[in-house]
Amino acid sequence: MNAAAQPVATPLLSVTPGSIDQVDWADKHYLVVDDFVGVRQLLRESLRSLGAKNIDQASSGGEAMGLLARTRYDVVLCDYNLGDGKNGQQVLEEARVRNLVNPSTAWLMVSAEKSVESVMGAAEHQPDAYLIKPITEGVLLSRLNRVWRKKQVFRMIDQACAEKDYLRAARLCDDQIAVDKVHELDLLRMKARLMERSGQPTRAREVYERVLEQREYQWARAGLAKIRLANGEFEQARQAFQGVIAENRYYIDAYDQLALSYQHMGKLEEACAILERAAKLSPNSVTRQRNLGNLALKLGNMQMAEKAFRKCIAIGEYSIMKTPDAYLGLARVCGQKNDPKEALQLLLLAQREFVHEHADIQLRAKITEGLVYHESGDYRRARKAGDDLDAMLKASPARPDIPTCLELATLLFAVGVKEGPVELLRYVIRNNHDNPLLLDEVQKIFDKARMQEEGLAMIRASKKEAADLMNQGVLLWKTGKLGEAVAWMRNARKAVPNNQRILFNAAQVMVSCLQQQGYDAALAAEAYEILHHVDHLLPGQQRFAQLMEQLAQLQPAVEKGGLAAVA
Amino acid sequence: MDDTPNAHELFLFLASTAHDMKNSISVLSGTLERLLVDASPRTESAYPQMAHMLYQTKRLNDNLMQLLALYKQVGTPAYPFDVQPLELSHLVDQVVSMERVLLQSRGIHLELDCDPRLIWHFDEDLVVGVLSHAINNAVHYTCDRVRLAIREQDGWLELRVEDNGPGYPPALLKAGEIATRETAGGVSFLTNSAGLGLYFSSEVAKMHRHRGRHGTLRLENGGRYGGGCFILRLP
């Protein structure tokens, strides 16, 4: 291009090298979302001059959701500020969570000025590009082409990710890094994340260090700090996150992680102060407001807790990320402010709002009710709630997540119910027999209930029970009795459905069986189901990644296409 | 600006007003560009006036963008700064496509000189903003030619916008010196209309840091055509 004196009227993309692989923009389906009719018309005109024929328009987030539910778009141009109702980010989040867009859909977020959210780096749902107004036709085409090319580079990697075969995805990254200088950093960042998700922080660290040799990228610094955090090096993590913020005070993710580091160090005041600062910079995150509310509640700062929970509920109104935690937390605040009436109203509201998405909402609302009464000194009503909870536990074998179990057991002991909580804690131990930290926590709950000896004996017995279940299965496996081992582990899984060690071993035994006795679709599906369940309990474990890869490799070649359906 | 509740409300008001103004400017410049592309000086008697309107619209937008990025708290990076690697072809593409219609309508020739494959690390939106501001500015000073030249030199990326006009007037060179001084705060926005753009550009330069070095901005007369030269250097 060094040819001087080029005429100005050359085609727009004359500067781009290798423009042979031009994208055909005419046949794509477009959605334009903006609350200002002038901008919609302008964007539509620009798209038309690219040859586009299928262009839908929406003037609000709600309208956009309706269209997204009906049509699979190739390109979405969405304004961030959409007036009342959902904003652009919330439209994106909901579209992704509800699977209304394909991984190949190009999502371009448009805004008047550069938003803090655009440098959040690690936010879960990022658009493919941010465009700042005014948008001229040429800029639009240039950015569309760039996004499209990147999507092509990442197509196979995204596919492997969707199948949760992270190790294959990482190998695909390596292949691309070797040949693609333009996307090198994006690929390295992806690879580091894949290594984290596969439980291999050492290899993730290598990738981040390789990036930092080139340039001081804050996402790589934050990545290193996160690995320290996961390793329990809280003080080093704290310093590193503070360093990231000092370099770029808009790197919001570092605030959330810094607060987490403080929390692990037991410094709740500091954690709360950091989250408060982050919430000021970027107030529209449901998760951040919830965490802030919970921390403030723990610290007894009712004013801050109330503000955060109310904000959380307000943002949640239009967001797929909305959470019952804010309602339950706010109910606790009301209880402490001696307003049990509003607390109960909130609990009713929470049960109505979340009846479909959260199976355990009734139980959690009841726990909060018990806590509200207990904390406000109404011991009679607290006991009544305790009896209700006891009855609910007896009526259904389903159990909530571990933190809720511990909270529930503590409450039940406190209001004087004895048998129910012991049973509940037995369930906790049997499903987590190799987690010493959790065992300590359970022992403390018994200590507090003045049942030290009983707790000790129960923990020991339940631990042995689970260990025996597992060891017998492993013994069968190691002695080559694969069929029996599979049957044994299947039963063990029924007895302790959420024990990660046992689940991993069950999947391992099934993979061995498939390796030695040939492929069996039903058994493979069972192994996948088990692995997805463990991943749901605790994501990012190395054994998950390894077993997923082994399973994928066992798949006969002709069936490869069906993999995604299993995942 | 004080951090009082009043200041906060004023900020929200300004932000939403700016958002609205951006929409209007988007429509205005988009419509003008469309009209100019479809027209020619021979068929349209108002062609020069339309071209001038586009020039003024672009100035409005430049100023608004710079104000938005700067006014919150001058001196500290109040802008969500975001460095990414980018091929120069993508940078130049965007600048060209933003300036093409304006330059064409004013009969100005844009000359490009860079290695399109070279990858550098910078905040794309800011650098595109600075370069298009510099070109808009050159439109005012040039005779009929503007040159955008980008090259790597001793670990720096040097981006030059040169024109073939009579050169920047002494007052502007002086303003450039003041605005780009190491210590901030020397610029007087009241006495020099070019001050804001220069100050913004030099802030953008300084935000780009790498291994203990930061970007710089310089104005001079000379270059290939002996006219004004706007020189941004990024580490």
- Helical fraction of chain B equals 40-55%
CATH class of the largest domain in chain B: Alpha Beta
> What is the distance, rounded to the nearest whole angstrom, between the alpha carbons of the first and last residues of chain B?
32 Å
What is the name of the CATH architecture of the domain at 13-157 in chain A? Answer: 3-Layer(aba) Sandwich
Query: What general outline of chain B do the C-alpha atoms trace?
Result: globular
Please give the order of strands in the largest beta sheet of chain B. Answer: 2-4-5-9-8
Order of helices and strands of chain B: HHEHEEHEEHHEEEE
Number of helices of chain A: 26
| CATH structural fold name of the largest domain in chain B | Heat Shock Protein 90
Give an overview of the whole structure:
The complex is a heterodimer of chains A (567) and B (235). Chain A is built from 26 helices and five strands. By secondary structure, chain A is mainly alpha-helical. Helix content of chain A is 66%, strand content 4%. Chain A is globular and about 75 Å long. Chain B has 235 residues and is an alpha+beta fold. Chain B folds into two domains: 5-70; 84-234, Histidine kinase-like ATPase, C-terminal domain (Heat Shock Protein 90). A five-stranded mixed β-sheet of chain B has the order 2-4-5-9-8. A two-stranded antiparallel ribbon of chain B has the order 1-3. Chain B has a two-stranded antiparallel ribbon with strand order 6-7. In chain B, a hairpin with a 4-residue loop joins strand 8 and strand 9 (227-234). In chain B, helix 4 runs antiparallel to helix 6. The chains are: A mainly alpha (567), B alpha+beta (235). Chains A and B meet through helix 1 and helix 4 of A and helix 1, helix 2, strand 1, helix 3 and strand 2 of B.
